[in-house]
Every structure is written in structure tokens, then in C-alpha cells.
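As agreed, record passed on underneath.
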Amino acid sequence: MTNEPDFQFHTTACHRIKACSHGGGYSRHRRGWSGARLLCPLITSREAWSGEDLAKPLATRKHMPNRLKLLIVNMANFQIHYWWLVIVSLLIHRLPFFLYSPTEAVTFKKAAMIISYLILFFVLVRNWKIVGFRILLVGALLNFAAIAFNGGLMPVTPEARLSAGMSSIGRSAIGGVLPEGSGILLNSDQTKLWLLTDIVPIDKLGAVCSIGDIIMLVGMIVLLIQIIYRAYPRQHFKAFDPMESKKIDDRERT
């Protein structure tokens, strides 16, 4: 016996995904197959691709995991340029504060803060076409302005800390790096661009944040919605069309 029928079936299933699923075709703008190619090895069940079941709307089919697989693969293929630099930026931003005590290497911490923001700006500008990244860029610019005008660290007032339910720090700590984060304790009259600093208390979390942080949170939510919306398979599966499959193969060769 031979496995040729199974191979033929598997190839047909892959063509069906390419030809009929949302996000499964070739696109020069997306520089390659977006989901269908990676999904083909995942779906080899005859029952999942048999007969009349393919003609039904996807929402009414029994094999809902297929739709979830397609969504996950399409989300993984969402094009974000230099996304790995975001991880590098976060490491540069946080590591100095974990490695040294609040009174040590203050100049190094300030330099690391500025460098981390510059790297983040590069990634955000490179992905300017994505709306979520535009919102993130606005929030990051507001935070960077507050940090740059106050010597390289984000100022936090003692009043904002108390409003957030955080532990009280003596007046002698004014001008020093905070023990729990990457900010610096300053009075309101000593702070430049006070409105952009960490003045918003969040008592349930025991933390303070800035207007830029809130805008960046909105940007991350919008980005997540964009990724899910573009990746969600909205079209129904339909019967296999050999001519459509041939057109796709011809485009792939070019």
C-alpha cells in the first residue's frame, strides 16, 4: 500500500486554506504567505474537510479549533518591524535599577533611561503606519520630555505617593532615586513640566503613573485590537476551486 492518497488530500486541504481563508493568500505588501502556509501541516483530518461541511458557514461548523488555529497563525504573522528591539529597550530601562541600589550608579541609570527611549522611538517610527504605534509614540514622547527636562529620571512628588497608598519617605530623600521604581523624588516646585510627570495615583495598585503612561496603555490596547481584527478569519470556507488554486500557485512562483 502507498500513502499517496493521504498526500493528495493534504495538498488539497492546503490549497483550500490558501484559496478560501481570510489572510491566507499571497500579498506583496505582507511579503509572503500570511498564515495559510504555516497552518497546512496542522490540519490533515479528512473529517474536518469532507463534503458538505465545507459549504457551511465557519461559525456553524463542528471543527471550531481550525478557526482558532488560523487566528493564532495570522496573529503571529502580523508584521511589526524590529519588534525585538522593544525587548532590548525594556531590558536597558529596567536592569540598572535591579542591579544597583537606589544610591548607586545614578548617572548610569539616567543614561540607560535615555538610551532605552531612543531605541523605543526608532521602533515606533519604523511602524508608523500602524495606528496603535502612533498612539504609543505620543505617550512615549510625553514621558521622554518629562524625563529629559528633569535630569534623566521621572519625577514623583511625595503627595502623589501618599495618595497612592505608598510608604512615606522622609524629606531627606528629596532628590534621590526611589527604591521601588525608576523615578526620582522631587517636590512640585522643583519639578519641570509637572503636568507630564507621575502625578496620577492608582491606590488599588499602589502606584503612580503619568499622562504619557495612560496614553501608552491606550496605544497598546488599540494595537492588540488591530492585530486581532486583521488576523480574524471573517470569510467562510467554500468548496475547493482548482482554477483559484492555480492562480495562487502562479502568483507564488512570481
Notes: The CA atoms of residues 185 and 216 lie 23 Å apart. The chain has nine helices and six strands. The chain has two domains: 4-56+236-253, 84-228. The radius of gyration is 26 Å.
